[in-house]
């Protein structure tokens, strides 16, 4: 059984019914050329994506990811994706992957080729990296200035904040800066001094028995993992809240986690080179929940 699956997708307009949805997918060898040189996704990062986990054959939270894909398309003025088509593509890829293990499944919807066929879409599933180390031992984090205020989304909608666009060069640059400073990851701070998110993760804090995360007011991506974990925490009797979190509260938290779809929950052990309380037991509990089949 292959451990990599790549499908080129002929995107259907939302709501279109077709008799043979499978005929809109073409499985290709990921090592072979598949995209045109004029692709706006590669030339300008002009497109959107989602990455979801496939755990032991189960695509985690596929609906939440597809709804966010639709929201990103709306923000970027891309044609609305047909969610049943994407669901069928995810199901086909998940069925083709080995029944055991963790995989990262990436969905891409690009603006396509200028003056050519548009949009372009594909799915690419590969084995997930081994995150057992950071899940068990946590990560050292530095705070970095994001360069805009927490209300930037409303003032400058062309920044496309809140959409998961392909333009991740700045996010990767922030991770390199974190490594240069001797850390593993970073938490972005808005220019007006509020906690935002990591370059590839959401941030949650615990003070006493209350879990909080920055309000998803548009400047950050609303994480599917954070949303799912908050649901779990509420169902198991714990308090959660969305609110503006001043940066000083990172220093007073009883625990801080970064959450994302494939790495899942990792606890923060140090913040700007100062040790912070780390809750290994709660992290294990969160990851046991996040690795169980979720819809
Ligand atoms: N924020 C950003 C900027 C991200 O890139 C990601 C995921 O890649 C997240 C938050 C977490 O989102 P999710 O939990 O849906 O993976």
From TrEMBL:
GO terms for molecular function: lyase activity. The keyword Lyase applies. Keywords: Lyase. It comes from the Bacteria. InterPro entries: Aminotrans_IV, Aminotransferase-like, BCAT-like_C, BCAT-like_N, Class-IV_PLP-Dep_Aminotrnsfr. NCBIfam families: PRK07849.1-1 (NF005886). Belongs to the class-IV pyridoxal-phosphate-dependent aminotransferase family. This is Aminodeoxychorismate lyase.
């Amino acid at each position: 059984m292959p451990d990599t699956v790549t499908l080129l997708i002929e995107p259907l307009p939302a709501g279109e019914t077709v008799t043979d949805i499978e005929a809109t997918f073409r499985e290709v060898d990921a090592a072979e050329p598949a995209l045109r040189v004029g692709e706006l996704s590669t030339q300008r990062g002009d497109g959107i994506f989602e990455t979801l986990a496939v755990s032991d054959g189960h695509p985690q939270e596929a609906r939440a990811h597809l709804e966010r894909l639709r929201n990103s398309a709306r923000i970027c003025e891309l044609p609305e994706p047909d969610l049943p088509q994407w669901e069928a593509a995810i199901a086909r890829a998940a069925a083709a992957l080995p029944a055991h293990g963790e995989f990262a499944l990436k969905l891409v919807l690009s603006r396509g080729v200028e003056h050519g066929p548009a949009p372009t879409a594909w799915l690419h599933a590969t084995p997930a990296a081994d995150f057992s180390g950071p899940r068990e031992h946590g990560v050292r984090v530095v705070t970095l200035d994001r360069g805009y205020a927490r209300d930037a989304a409303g003032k400058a909608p062309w920044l496309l904040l809140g959409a998961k666009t392909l333009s991740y060069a700045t996010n990767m640059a922030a991770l390199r800066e974190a490594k240069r400073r001797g850390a593993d990851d970073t938490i972005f701070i808005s220019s007006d001094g509020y906690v935002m998110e990591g370059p590839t993760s959401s941030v949650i804090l615990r003070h006493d028995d209350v879990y909080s995360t920055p309000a998803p007011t548009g400047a950050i991506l609303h994480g599917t993992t954070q949303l799912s974990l908050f649901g779990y925490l509420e169902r198991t009797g714990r308090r959660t809240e969305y609110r503006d979190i001043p940066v000083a509260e990172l220093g007073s938290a009883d625990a801080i986690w970064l959450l994302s779809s494939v790495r899942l929950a990792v606890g923060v052990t140090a913040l700007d080179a100062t040790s912070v309380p780390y809750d290994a037991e709660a992290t294990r509990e969160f990851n046991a929940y996040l690795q169980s089949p979720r819809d």
